[in-house]
Amino acid sequence: MKRKQPPVEEVVSSDSDDSDIAESDKCIMCKLFYPPCTDTKLSFINIVKWGCCDLCQGWVHLTFCTQIKVLRRGDSFLCPKCTSED
Question: Which of the four pLDDT bands, split at 50, 70 and 90, describes residue 31?
Answer without folding.
Answer: very high
